[in-house]
Amino acid sequence: MTIAYVLNTYPLPSHSFIRREVQALERQGVSVLRLAMRRATAPLVDARDRAEAERTEYVLDRGALGLGAALLRRFLAAPGRGFAALRLALRCGGASPAGRLRHLIYLGEAAHVAECCRAAGVTHLHAHFGTNSATVAMLAEALGGPGYSFTVHGPEEFDAPAALSLPEKLARARFAVGVSQFGRSQLCRWTAFAGWDRLRVVHCGIEPAAFADPVPVPGGPLRLVAVGRFVEQKGQMILLQAMARLVRTHPQAHLDLVGDGEMRGDLERAISGLGLGGNVTLTGWLDQEGVRAALDAAQALVMPSFAEGLPMVVMEAMAAARPVVATYVAGTPELVRPGKTGWLVPAGDVAALADALAELAETGQERLDQMGLSGRARVLERHDIDSEAAKLAGYFENG
């Protein structure tokens, strides 16, 4: 079986779960053609991401003339399909000229994707995220390419389903995937009841071998780690405010913020303004080994997000036998069990987050170890990437 993965920007440090899924499918014997619209703009830190980039075909590298020529060839080969795909693109583009122009570009990308699939003998297209990558997969199918499916992560798709033509994509897809039961429930909102049996759950996965020997939870003053892009929805600003409360009673508490992004300057100013210069470190992006080292050095992971799908870093922290402090959002409560594997708090509640961190700081070593091991057992049972990839491969074969 040969399939093609249709992606927007790939690989990215924050999308290592896609790389793991693709490679797990290949271990299942599935041939995977990687088709990304564009390259990452920032240098890739992880050598595995750089290796993936070498194996990826970048559609926009063809340029406007190349994509236009591919679209012309599709129209000449099958005019009826071409005009139907054009009408679909214009309909999904909405009333605005900018939206329609953007979807005409997607149509050109889709024509190249369809040609790549034909040349490689691809039998199925799969896109990650219900955004432009799923649009390209849908238009490629309309132009005569193979049938498609897509994985929805959230929260972006759930914020603007109509603008993303999510109902259209769901109706035309062979099947669609949520990464949690919560994610699948949101797809049910935009799918006719008769189509609910085409909505699946396939978890993002971790590689158990990468977490074979978890390091015991360290003792000493509280050390926390948070991992994610520096954007509003990740809630790092709330976490800093909670840290400012925490250090009044636990002055040696320390937080490593792993990541980078548009809010870095805001976070730096907040750290200074709150007097947290000695309590918070901004590490920048770290490769997989660096993230693992940061988890091993911490007593717990903190995930203060306002909106999520099902965060990979929560899975990785639990696999590393670390308790998790997270917010009650999306699929997170399906993984984090209050009092058993960590703490859950309302999103945006500084006081509740600070209280949970204080309770964590005062929890005994034996209890933290127990919570960490319970979390590890739970995530290894639910999120083994080879098991999830086998499930996905079955859907590719049987719909």
Automatic annotation (TrEMBL):
CDD domains, A to Z? GT4_PimA-like (cd03801)
Pfam families named in the record: Glyco_trans_1_4
Q: What is this protein called?
A: Glycosyltransferase family 4 protein
Q: Which InterPro entries match?
A: Glycosyltransferase_grp1 (IPR050194)
Q: What is the lineage of its organism?
A: Bacteria, Pseudomonadati, Pseudomonadota, Alphaproteobacteria, Rhodobacterales
